[in-house]
Amino acid sequence: MDKIAEIRQRCMQALAECEKVSLLQELKVRFLGKVGEVTSLLKSIKDLPQEERPSFGAKVNQLRNLLEDAFAQRQQTLSETEIKNKLQKEKVDVSLTAVSPWGALHPVTLIENKISSLLVSMGFEVIAGPEIETDYYNFQALNIPQDHPARDMQDTFYITDSILLRTQTSAMQARLMEKKQPPIKMICPGKVFRSDSDSSHSPVFHQIEGLVVDENITLCDLKGTLEYLAKNLFGKETKVRFRPSYFPFTEPSVEVDLTCSNCGGKGCSLCKGTGWIEVLGAGMVNPAVLENCGIDSEKYTGYAFGWGMDRIAMIKYGIPDIRLFYENDQRFLKQFE
Ligand code: DAH
């Protein structure tokens, strides 16, 4: 009986002194485990005289129950304190501003955001479309049938005969016009893909498509819009020039040049001495495209344009090689923080 009291006393003291949940388990094994002190007491019953066994057994069981409760209680107190301490220690004050920024926008994203927000301020709606596209929307609906030589202008990644990685955001023109009657005033920024790679071509690059269809839309509306964009992007003195060109989905079609932002039009290495830099393709939406999409080409006219964002970013930031945009070298990207 003395032994029972002694074990009880020792165990309760050890429990009170134990400050860690992880140490508690060891302690429990020592007292209540298979070869623990309390269990050994139970085993020692057989050495007692017959008449003492029942009351001794009852006492040991009492002790075991008492200690089990005490362990459970201590376990709870300790884990609550541990959690509380941990929360205290790892507390994050979300009201504090970060000491240093953890990232930056990619230069192409910066340009895309800038051009998009200028166009949004002019009332354009922003839409997005699929990067995996059908041959129909990427080509046929845009007046480029199978075997049309204009397909050679764009080296296409085909997935099947009729599914491809879109080569131009122009694909969204037809998708939108099929669903919506004029007035239409949309832009579609996004990734496009072509099998081409050198210092000015990347297999993936970025375009912004613009499309306006309504009554009485003319080439002057296109020129005014592009002039506004050019002046906001490259400075008030920037001039815009249209050169005749050819795209199957516009008639007439133009290539659009801006005065070189580097030399102001005098001629330098960036503009190869011409004073002008070609930045985008555009034109009046070909009536055939309007009709393909169920829009009355007698009543409505429209203009469209497609800009390469990467090219604008290269000009704006003086970047000589388009591949720098896709290598994700931190030393390059950090310059745009
Ligand atoms: N989709 C043409 C390209 O990627 C660019 C383009 C030209 C878009 C004329 C247009 C446009 O909307 O009207 O080369």
Automatic annotation (TrEMBL):
Binds 2 magnesium ions per tetramer. It is found in: Cytoplasm. Mg(2+) binds at residue 251. Its cofactor is Mg(2+). It is an enzyme of class 6 (ligase). One of its GO terms (molecular function) is magnesium ion binding. It holds the Pfam family tRNA-synt_2d. The keyword Cytoplasm applies. GO terms for biological process: phenylalanyl-tRNA aminoacylation. InterPro entries: aa-tRNA-synth_II (IPR006195), aa-tRNA-synth_II/BPL/LPL (IPR045864), Phe-tRNA-synth_IIc_asu (IPR004529), Phe-tRNA_ligase_II_N (IPR004188), Phe_tRNA_ligase_alpha1_bac (IPR022911), Phenylalanyl-tRNA_Synthase (IPR002319), tRNA-bd_arm (IPR010978). GO terms for cellular component: cytoplasm. It catalyses: tRNA(Phe) + L-phenylalanine + ATP = L-phenylalanyl-tRNA(Phe) + AMP + diphosphate + H(+). Keywords: Aminoacyl-tRNA synthetase, ATP-binding, Cytoplasm, Ligase, Magnesium, Metal-binding, Nucleotide-binding, Protein biosynthesis. Belongs to the class-II aminoacyl-tRNA synthetase family. Phe-tRNA synthetase alpha subunit type 1 subfamily. Tetramer of two alpha and two beta subunits. This is Phenylalanine--tRNA ligase alpha subunit. It comes from Candidatus Fimimonas merdipullorum. The gene is pheS.
